[in-house]
UniProtKB/TrEMBL annotation:
Residues 490-502, 557-587 have a biased composition (Low complexity). This is EF-hand calcium binding domain 5. The lineage of its organism: Eukaryota, Metazoa, Chordata, Craniata, Vertebrata. It comes from the Eukaryota. Residues 1-12, 75-88 have a biased composition (Basic and acidic residues). It comes from Podarcis lilfordi (Lilford's wall lizard).
Length: 1391
């Protein structure tokens, strides 16, 4: 039914709806508008966009079409009848009349001028112009003009098309209007002009960018030819990604940022060598990353890419060597056991090295010195007192910019061209400043460089020499000749070897001398030690001494393909081979030189002239672009570079050596891993246990044996960088023939492997048995339960054996909880002791006991699934501690997530709250108790009330009771207790219901360091009590957190050792560049690869930089040029590498099992070796770090009880690491001084009537440390009195002196002033071992004195320090603080 509209008094219609809205609007306050609801607003917008917007767009399009059509009509008219040019006479931009003229031309003249024209035409038609004065006026011009203007009023006239003159005036008016300032048209014209200028600039910039991009692509295309390509003419993407990654690292170190923003897109990781790029793809791939590079950075990238190309060739060359060494390992492994005798290999290397001629010896490392031997193998006295100087040299390469090394002609020319383009946004000419004149040595080096390059014509040589002259820095005098001599062509070197030596054949054979024309190159002077011929090790077999003649024969004669030493007719064959090689070398110079050898310049063409250049004349762009066509054609058709005469296959066959030979040499019985095994219930546990542990690629270091990766790495380190292929073949043949094993040795080696296999299987069985018993993952077993089951073994007949084994078990005699807990290690020890006490075959007895205990415990399928899931969750907590760079926060996060997941899956969906509180010494309010509980972490909802709170001992609570009794405390219903302390006091009383559980946190020695608390006060369900299997699992969480927490604490102690050691080293060395420390972090399981985390960097010029956790991460496939770091971790041995024009030494830091846990990347710069003094100090630091770290790891793992030698070690936390470093150094020095004779050892010093000031200063400082009261007295100032003090008592006092003791009153500033003139190198040059000992002992004592004072100051200023509760401390604290309390207050995070 329709509603009729009502009528108002005025007669207007008004609907009731409108009236209602009007009343609402009237009743609302004045000016108030009711806002629309979100739903109404959304509906209105949707309707608007659906209906009104299309209509508006249609109207807009119609208007645009109309304007476009009118413009087209206007253009056609103008084309048909162009505007009259006479109208341009009205244009005048004089500023005084500009505005008036614009108004007249726009408003008046378009109508007036045509009117005057019509007037004249009408007057001429009526002959009014010819009228005489006497004739009457028949034509009135004023009236005619007025009528015309009224008739053609622009406001009312509608004309089809104005005449050409009017159109011209219109154009003149529009142009004049744009000249009138402060008008719309003027502003619009300015905007149009600005837009045109910007468009022009943008087009110019785009033109420049296009030009730069084309030039860069051309440079990258030339760069492609510098790389070693495979058979298909392609390059692996992984090499290019590694080059970009390393360039980003170098730029980030220069720019002091992370370097992530230097590329146009994020870096990718290929992961393997399979993806490859051709020349076009190579150019496009690199161009996609460097679009935003400036010209300077692009130049740096080109230089870096050239370095990487050389390093890639070097990697390929080393891969060929490694293949030879791997095959050599298989040839020497006669018993096929997967291991070689390390000592025998070292003996063979010694015989080979010390019987080589100085020329053949070049490149090999001395096998009696580090890094071939271990630092632990060096005697302490020799380590600290050997004062002989060793040879050290800088890199034997041309001292030219690294980017020019290996630069072809076209690359040099293009580089000169690109230098004219300074940036992507502007193009300016560089300064024409001439290069500074170099020294005579630099000129010689430039000449040597030109001689090294292939003959490319005089003009091409001028281009190359000019490019090098512009870029080459000044070099030291005399370095040019040495560089040229050391980098001569290997073909000429081989010819010289043939000419200089005669082939030696075995006794009884005819000697055929071999001579070749040509003079031998001048060899660098070798050290005296290289000319010596020391006897080989006594441990070498007798057959080694009989092979010296064969070795001499092998090194003097060049072996042909397939020829072996000792064959008939060797002399004649060697002569023919040598002559053939010499002829080939003369015909093809440089062919024998393997690509990738350092210092070699790459040749792209021969005899091709380059652009000529007069002195002081700059090459133009056209000159450089118009290079001879022969160069372009030969460059484009350049054949792939060959490695030892062969094209690279495109794969590095030994790159994954550690993955392929993971368990090679480890015989593990896997009879359990099948369906018919004797231990079916343990099978899954054993599979899971095998998947854990350290990464499979890491090999433990063993002084007695070598596995394939370790053997290959040892041989590669011995060979060095500058060894030729012929010398490598000689070494392989020598080791192959010299490594022999007797049958007894083979049997002994097999027995050793079988024994190791038995131990591994035994540990695996016992670990699986332990996990089956500990199904809820608590981390321990009750010894009473184990004994109750074992007492029934063989019906109790072996009870006596069990009692004997129990007596030998190292378990605590008393514990506050009264429970004897057996950890997994204790359980294994207990079972081994039981087996040893029983009679019979140990292997069979162990299997019987394991089978008996396995059958004694039955688990349902649900229980097994629950235990497996919980064990995986606990492993995540440990993994978080090992993979976050020492950061504890991720451990807290994972722990609370595990608690939530377990409650959801196995805890009836309880809602729990949890916290972690650590015990600390109460230094804030000592009157409230000796220790306190500091809440360091909790669940998210409890953070506002609990986090960073402190619970004192006078606040009665079960948290302290659980810590002191070292046992869990479970309160099922907290509302019934009555004495509960709630952190959240705002919580209503009726809501304070639930259960509460407190678990003590124990370290490896069962010392409590904190508590883990859980409650269910936020759970609204009726059943909130913790059941037994949940409590056992929460105990496992507490145990796992303890392991994770102490792992981080151990890492902090190790870092403190390293920081102290690096600070000590860089005060003594000056030529060392940097030392970077990386920690190894394992993968998810044993088969996943590990990563390296960068933790600190020490530089000679900058202070030590410690990267805050978590630091940068390095992965194996991210940068193949950093692969030497992973080889060091894989093999746990020292690795040397030459990369990015720098000598690197990767030194592993091993744990107590010989596995590498960290690596030091030592950068020597251009020097192949440091001076002897600094080299020894580097070795001392590395050796002392290893000793201190092993001490920390043994103590933290429970293998060894803490042994404190110095008082400063009682600090008891991570700061003890710095004291440990100096303690081991002090002990070694004290041992050296103890072996000195007070008279014979100091005889040379006693002969001085007036000693050198250096000797007197050192002796004076040593006496002042022991007797500080003698400062300024005659006892130390007079030389004769000082000499009299050198006796047995002084040596004894030095050896028993503790610099950190409280009674020491030495003032370090006094001794530092005294030692101011005693420099480290001056002491070394004095060549006195006693003075060296005393000097180092004085400096070590001073460092310890300062460190002890710092520790005391920090301890006094600290607000808290970590505390540990032992059973003895527990009894004392309970008797003094808690025994008087009858009730306990529950301190729980109640929210």
């Amino acid at each position: 039914m329709d509603i009729e509209p009502e009528k108002s008094e005025a007669g207007s219609e008004r609907s009731p709806v409108s009236e209602t809205h009007l009343e609402e609007a009237t009743s609302s306050p004045s000016g108030a508008v009711r806002p629309l609801t979100p739903r109404t607003d959304a509906q209105w917008k949707s309707i608007f966009y659906e209906t009104l917007q299309p209509r508006a767009l249609d109207l807009q399009q119609t208007r645009v079409e109309k304007l476009r059509n009118s413009k087209m009509v206007q253009k056609k008219a103008e084309k048909k009848e162009p505007p009259d040019k006479l109208s341009r006479d009205w244009f005048n931009d004089e500023s005084m009349t500009l505005e008036t003229r614009a108004y007249l031309v726009d408003k008046l003249l378009p109508t007036l001028v045509p009117g005057v024209e019509k007037l004249l035409m009408a007057a001429e038609k009526k002959k009014a112009l010819e009228r005489k004065e006497s004739e009457p006026l028949t034509f009135d011009p004023i009236t005619f003009l007025g009528e015309y203007l009224m008739r053609h009023n622009p406001a009312y006239e509608i004309s089809a098309m104005p005449n050409p003159y009017v159109r011209g005036l219109k154009a003149v008016a529009d142009e004049l209007k744009t000249k009138v300032p402060e008008t719309t048209l003027h502003k619009l014209e300015q905007m149009k002009t600005l837009v045109k200028e910007k468009r022009k600039q943008r087009e110019q910039v785009e033109k420049i960018k296009t030009h730069v991009r084309d030039m860069r692509k051309e440079a990258l295309s030339m760069q492609f030819k510098e790389w070693t390509m495979d058979l298909t003419g392609q390059i692996p993407v992984l090499l290019i990604q590694s080059a970009l990654k390393s360039f980003m690292e170098s730029v980030s170190s220069e720019l002091s940022d992370d370097g992530t923003g230097i590329y146009a897109r994020p870096l990718e990781s290929a992961g393997s060598l399979a993806p490859k790029l051709n020349e076009e793809q190579f150019t496009e791939y690199l161009d996609s990353y460097i679009k935003n590079f400036s010209s300077d950075m692009f130049q740096q990238l080109l230089q870096h890419l050239l370095q990487c190309a050389n390093d890639a060739r070097n990697i390929i060359r080393h891969d060929i060597w490694r293949q030879m060494f791997l095959q050599l390992f298989f040839n020497c492994d006669h018993g096929k056991v997967g291991l070689l005798d390390r000592q025998r290999i070292l003996s063979l290397l010694e015989v080979f090295f010390y019987n080589c001629s100085p020329h053949h010896k070049k490149g090999f490392l001395d096998p009696k010195k580090w890094p071939i031997i271990e630092l632990d193998d060096i005697e302490v006295a020799e380590f600290w007192g050997n004062m002989e100087d060793e040879q050290f040299s800088e890199r034997s390469s041309l001292n030219i910019p690294s980017g020019e090394l290996g630069l072809s002609e076209e690359s040099v020319a293009l580089k000169l061209l690109l230098k004219d383009i300074l940036s992507d946004m502007e193009m300016t000419a560089p300064d024409n400043s001439e290069a500074p004149e170099g020294s005579a040595a630099a000129d010689q080096e430039k000449a040597g460089l030109e001689q090294e390059a292939s003959p490319i014509g005089k003009e091409g040589e001028a281009v190359l020499a000019t490019a090098l002259q512009d870029e080459m820095p000044a070099v030291e005098p005399g370095s040019g000749e040495a560089a040229v001599q050391e980098e001569q062509d290997p073909a000429a070197t081989a010819a010289a070897e043939s000419a200089a030596q005669e082939t030696v054949v075995p006794a009884g054979k005819d000697v055929v001398p071999v001579t070749t024309q040509g003079s031998a190159p001048v060899l660098p002077v070798e050290t005296l030690e290289a000319d010596r011929n020391p006897q080989p090790r006594s441990s070498a077999p007798a057959s080694l001494f009989n092979m010296q003649s064969g070795l001499q024969q092998t090194q003097n004669g060049e072996l042909g393909p397939g020829q072996e030493p000792g064959l008939e007719g060797q002399g004649a064959a060697a002569a023919e081979q040598s002559s053939a090689e010499t002829a080939a070398a003369q015909e093809e110079p440089g062919k024998e030189r393997e690509p990738g050898s350092r210092g070699q310049l790459h040749r792209s063409s021969e005899g091709v002239p380059g652009p000529s250049k007069r002195p002081g004349q700059k090459l133009s762009v056209s000159d450089l672009l118009s290079m001879p066509s022969g160069l372009d054609s030969e460059t484009c058709e350049k054949a792939p570079q060959k490695i030892y005469g062969k094209i690279w296959s495109g794969d590095l066959q030994t790159a994954d050596l550690s993955f392929v030979y993971t368990d090679y040499g480890k015989e593990i019985r896997e009879d359990w891993n099948n369906e018919s095994t004797r231990f079916p219930d343990l099978r899954m546990n054993m599979i899971e246990i095998q998947a854990r542990g350290p990464p499979s690629t890491i090999s433990s270091f063993d002084k007695e044996s070598l596995n394939p990766p370790q053997f290959v790495q040892l041989m590669e380190t011995f060979v060095g960088e500058e060894t030729t292929l012929s010398n490598v073949k000689r070494l392989v043949e020598f080791v192959k023939e010299g490594y022999v094993q007797t049958e007894k040795e083979k049997i002994r080696q097999m027995e050793r492997i079988h024994q190791n296999s038995f131990l591994v299987r035994q540990q695996l069985l016992l670990a699986a048995l332990f996990e089956k018993w500990d199904n809820e993952c608590s981390g321990f077993l009750d010894m009473q339960e184990v004994d109750a089951v074992l007492s029934t073994f063989k019906e109790g007949m072996e009870q006596e054996a069990l009692n004997k084994a129990k007596l030998q078990l190292p378990i605590p005699q008393w514990h506050p909880s009264g429970i004897v807990k057996l950890s997994q290690r204790d359980f294994q020890t207990y079972m081994e002791l039981v087996v040893s006490e029983l009679t019979g075959d140990e292997d069979e007895l162990l299997d019987n006991i394991v089978e008996f205990l396995m059958m004694a415990v039955e688990r349902t399928h649900t229980e097994r699934l629950r235990g497996s899931a919980r064990r995986k969750w606990l492993l995540k907590i440990e993994h978080a501690a090992m993979t976050n760079g020492g950061c504890i926060k991720p451990v807290y996060d994972v722990l609370f997530k595990v608690l939530c997941r377990d409650t959801d899956a196995h805890g009836d969906t309880k809602k729990i709250s949890a916290y972690i509180a650590l015990l600390e010494y109460n230094l804030v309010s000592p009157e409230r108790g000796d220790v306190l509980l500091h809440y360091v972490a909790c669940t998210e909802d409890d953070a506002p009330y609990v986090l960073n709170q402190s619970l004192f001992m006078d606040m009665e609570g079960v948290s302290f009771a659980a810590a002191l009794d070292d046992k869990p405390i479970h309160v099922p219903r907290v509302q019934l207790h009555g004495n509960i302390h709630f952190w959240n006091q705002d919580r209503p009383l009726e809501e304070r219901k639930g259960s509460f559980l407190v678990l003590p946190l124990e370290d490896i020695r069962r010392r409590v360091f904190g508590v883990l608390g859980l409650d269910t006060l936020q759970d609204k369900n009726e059943k909130t009590i913790f059941v037994p299997h949940e409590i056992r699992f929460y105990q496992g969480i507490a145990n796992t957190f303890s392991i994770a927490y102490h792992h981080i604490r151990t890492k902090e102690s190790i870092m403190q050792v390293i920081i102290t050691a690096l600070g000590w080293l860089f005060t003594r060395v000056s030529l060392l560049q940097t030392i970077t420390t990386y920690f190894m972090e394992p993968g998810e399981d044993r088969m996943h690869d590990y990563t390296l985390r960068k933790v600190m960097t020490a530089d000679q010029n900058e202070p030590l930089e410690v990267h805050l956790p978590p630091g940068p991460v390095v992965r194996r496939r991210d940068n193949i040029f950093r692969d030497y770091l992973f080889k060091c971790i894989d093999c746990s041995v020292v690795v040397t590498m030459f990369v990015f024009e720098e000598h690197r030494i990767a030194v592993p830091l091993r744990n107590q099992m010989g596995q590498a846990i960290a690596v030091f990347d030592v950068n020597l710069g251009s020097r192949q070796k440091l001076p002897t003094c600094e080299h020894r100090d580097l070795q001392k630091m590395l050796r002392t770090i290893q000793a201190a770290v092993c001490e920390i790891l043994k103590e933290d793992s429970g293998e060894k009880d803490p042994f404190y030698v110095l008082e400063a070690e009682y600090v008891g936390d991570w700061r003890r690491g710095g004291v440990l470093f100096y303690r081991f150094m002090l002990q070694e020095l004290q041992n050296c001084i103890w072996n000195l004779d007070p008279f014979s050892s100091f005889s040379e010093i006693r002969c001085f009537e007036k000693p050198p000031s250096l000797v007197h200063t050192i002796l004076k400082c040593a006496l002042l440390i022991l007797y500080p009261q003698w400062a300024g007295t005659q006892e130390v100032e007079d030389w004769n009195c000082c000499i009299e003090k050198i006796d047995g008592e002084l040596i004894e006092n030095i050896c028993y002196f503790d610099p950190t003791a409280a009674y020491v009153e030495v003032r370090p500033e006094t001794l530092y002033n005294c030692l101011h003139g005693a420099h480290r190198k001056a002491v070394w040059k004095f060549r006195s071992a006693p003075m060296e000992y005393l000097y180092n002992w004085v400096n070590t004592c001073l460092s310890l004195i300062e460190l002890a004072k710092k520790l005391q100051h920090r301890q006094s200023m600290a607000t808290s320090s970590t505390a540990l509760i032992t059973p003895t401390l527990s009894r004392s604290l309970r008797s003094s603080q808690i025994s008087a309390n009858t009730n306990y207050t529950f301190a729980i995070p109640l929210v």
